[in-house]
Amino acid sequence: MLGRTYDSQVCSISRMxxxxxxxxxxxxxxxxxxxxxxxFTDFQQSLGIATNILATRLAHLVEQEVMTTDxxxxxxxxxxRDLVVSLIALTEWGDRWAAPNGQPxxxxxxxxxxxxxxxxxxxxxxxxxxxxxxxxxxxxxMPDHLxxxxxxxxxxxxxxxxxxxxxx
Amino acid sequence: MLGRTYDSQVCSISRMxxxxxxxxxxxxxxxxxxxxxxxFTDFQQSLGIATNILATRLAHLVEQEVMTTDxxxxxxxxxxRDLVVSLIALTEWGDRWAAPNGQPxxxxxxxxxxxxxxxxxxxxxxxxxxxxxxxxxxxxxMPDHLxxxxxxxxxxxxxxxxxxxxxx
Lengths: 168, 168
Prior knowledge:
Two copies of one chain form a homodimer. By secondary structure, chain A is an alpha+beta fold. Chain A has eight helices and six strands; from the N terminus they run αααααββααββββα.
């Protein structure tokens, strides 16, 4: 259980992981998004998962409004379909660091002709190649006392330039 | 355990989840990447995680070469730092669907002045707004018999246009 710290109240990764925080759930989402899995047996056969575990996970996803079901089919909601960029990003980490035989899948759009990647994109600078300077600053949903901590760390990392005696 | 299907041999999300497949591990990575957590106590205090669980998770991350340690400090390797885009994408899902008080953090680069997002980017078209057409096609690391399945599904989804008797 999370909850002893600020996490379950504030952090969006924590809240995301309360919905998807173990591997089967993300693999079920992968199959729903990219392998056209719809029926219980689609997921079961493709994942080789025990039926009781699969039933629990699907019920959880329905309860979390990530899927809807009529009892026979499981369909993603908008909330569920919105996981596309996360799954591409997770796949590409695996492609780079855990795919000794090469990239197993290629994400495409435009009926398969164009290749798609998950990237960090700056509102001003466009797609970023160098991610070393990426940091987290407080957003509007961060309580003040926690925001102060993040901001203090930011100033430590980027000290204000020394003041000149006189401006040139 | 995964392994009864093709997943642990082929799929990059599966392999990724073998490294990071439960919530504490991703929260530890979040703290290492974005909260400057380095020492055991940094992680422990920030996450409020039981020390035995934290010790197991950190040892796993060191074993997986995502972190290195000298016994006192835990530092991310390149393999670990490369999780930035995934964590931004996961955060942004939480921001959109599970942050009733607004976005808790804002990712920035350039000393905090520019806002960064995780986006799907097409090699030809640039940043994609509409992700409905994104699909997975076989890459070079996909065994032939599995590639055939993905390709068949692709053709089902995008049937070839009917041939005309005579070209105009």
